[in-house]
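Sanity check. The docking grid for dinuclear copper ion depends on where the pocket ends up, so I'm generating a full predicted complex first rather than guessing from homology. Inputs follow.
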Amino acid sequence: MNALLGTPGKAVWVHRVTGIVMLLPFIAGLSGCDGIMSILDVRGPMAEQIARLWWVLFWGSVVLGGGTIALVLYVVTRPHERAPRIGSGMGVMIGGGVVLPVVTLWALLIYGVSLGTRQVGGEEPPALTIEVVGHRFWWEVRYPDPVEPDEYVVSANEIHIPAGVPVDFFVSSADVIHSFWVPNLGGKIDMIPGRVNQIRLQANEPGVFRGQCAEYCGPQHARMAFFVRAHPPEAFEEWLAAERGEAEEPTSDLAVQGREQFFQQACMECHTIRGTPARGRAGPDLTRLGARKTLGAGTLEMSEENIAEWIAHNQQLKPGNRMLPYEHLDEETLQALSAYLESLQ
Ligand code: CUA
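Predicted complex below; grid placement will be based on this.
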């Protein structure tokens, strides 16, 4: 049989092996494309545009990279006696070395810029605008009142949006450059001190999505996360109306004691709890802390025990964050404080 077909030559084998090696990242990628941090797990029209760009770049690189490797292999493996005469390669050099890159890069530039412009918004007016301010290392979230734009509902580290409609985000920073990014819902945008940038996100369906700071901003950059909760539009309106109100009054004795401790320990110097004298702005607003999914911008799951843990040992849990550790507090005070803060829902 081998005598009839002949054994494959060296060049053929090199081609086969190279082909398989080039397919490996693609095969591996297919199994790892899902999840809350993947731009290929598309959950809305803005994310769809980003994913399309990714696939254009991917297949473009496969064709161009594959073509280049094939040419190199052809040149190095062919018999010497078939070497071209000097000068015959000029057409290939100009075509492949000048015309092809210029045309490809210009096409990509025009496509990329037009896509970037669409990420900022579209003809459809937004259903809602939300302001997000980056801090080291947490997120301040402000919902301007549609009637009184100077009035805000302020929250932190969790963003609620209506599903199925576009939401425009106006982002800035209070200190260094951060980057606002929800991979499943759209592109990312830098948060720059003294400047307001804009990006549009949209979730097709209700759900919970993860956001992450995407620009190195200091030692706790990796623990600067947030969650986006997309609600059906009516449920979102209900949520916003409830959010607008003042904090829940504590009901248990422990929580009442915790509220006293909150003021005795001077927590109100940095935190706001609406409906109480606490008006601090240096740290996250705590009016609905207990309703959030996480503590410390994605560092711990929300629970009473973890709140106590965070108050006492936040510098071990998230070294370099701007909150003071309260390791000197006794167990009873910590329990009271965490019972109060967890009751704020
Ligand atoms: Cu904020 Cu990285």
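Relevant for the grid: Helices lie at 2-5, 10-31, 45-77, 90-119, 233-244, 253-264, 304-317, 331-343.
Also worth noting: The chain has three domains: 9-119, 128-243, 253-343.
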